[in-house]
Amino acid sequence: MKETKIFERPKSMSDVPTHYCPGCTHGIAHRLVAEVIDELGIQKKTFGVAPVGCSVFLYNYIDTDMYEAAHGRAPAVASAVKRIRPDMVGFTYQGDGDLASIGMAEIVHAANRGELITVIFINNAIYGMTGGQMAPTTLLQQKATTCPLGRDPGVNGYPMRVAELLATLAAPAYITRVSVAKPKYVGKAAAAVKRAFQTQIDRKGFSFVEMLSTCPTNWGMRPADAANWLEEKMIPYYPLGDIKVPE
């Protein structure tokens, strides 16, 4: 009986092991980006920008032209490349510690200029690579190495809803929030990534996909428990769905 392959690695994803912790959902996010690049047939004209953080080795996994940026500066680098090569399709891949903290000014101004780039924003509510410190997206009462008793709004302020913040700007065309924590969410996440890239290709403006993701290691949880915690705690504060869509 002839075998038929029904599932395979995307052509735009390198055939190498990843360095992520067990239960981390960065790998799912990578695959969705690679699948969309394949589906749109844009591998040869796509470039990605990854900054400091767990995403720093993205160039090992996505088989397109890649740049490394200083911490938080991926939108600035992507904006420069896109302006020099407007025929290319450019995306950044950033975590919440990178984008929403040291890189907040960069993402706000890139969005406000309406740069023709796509941003994939991984929100796992904590600093991953650097040791589990509190991030701008860390939830109230959530524990981290820099707030071991839990985030206190009187001391640390409130968790930042980045997608909603950017949606107040006039220039961005497409802003949405999805999750990759459980299989039932992945289909909508894939559709959002495709729409974001298509928004850029159609020159409608800046596009932004926030992905709620797990970090079992720094949350101190087993992978299944982390997925449940995200669903029970993060989604109520960071609701899923489109926030701004192209007119």
Protein described:
The chain has 247 residues and is α/β, with parallel strands linked by helices. It has a single domain (26-244), classed as Thiamin diphosphate (ThDP)-binding fold, Pyr/PP domains (Rossmann fold), CATH 3.40.50.970. Helices cover 37% and strands 15% of the residues. It contains nine helices and seven strands; from the N terminus they run αββαβααβααβαβααβ. Strands 2-1-3-4-6-5-7 form a seven-stranded mixed β-sheet, sandwiched between helices. The longest helix is centred in the C-terminal third of the chain and has 19 residues, at 183-201. It starts with 25 loop residues before the first helix and ends with a strand. The model has no long low-confidence stretch (mean pLDDT 95).
- Using the alpha-carbon principal axes, give the shape: globular
Tell me the number of helical segments per DSSP (H or I, 4 or more residues long). Answer: 9
Secondary-structure element string = HEEHEHHEHHEHEHHE
| Strand fraction | 15-25%
The CATH fourth-level homologous superfamily: Thiamin diphosphate (ThDP)-binding fold, Pyr/PP domains
Output the CATH topology: Rossmann fold
- How would you write the strand order of the largest sheet? 2-1-3-4-6-5-7
CATH architecture: 3-Layer(aba) Sandwich
Structural class: alpha/beta
Distance between the termini: 51 Å
Portion of residues within helices = 25-40%
Number of domains: 1
The CATH class is identified as Alpha Beta
Number of strands: 7
Unreliable spans are none
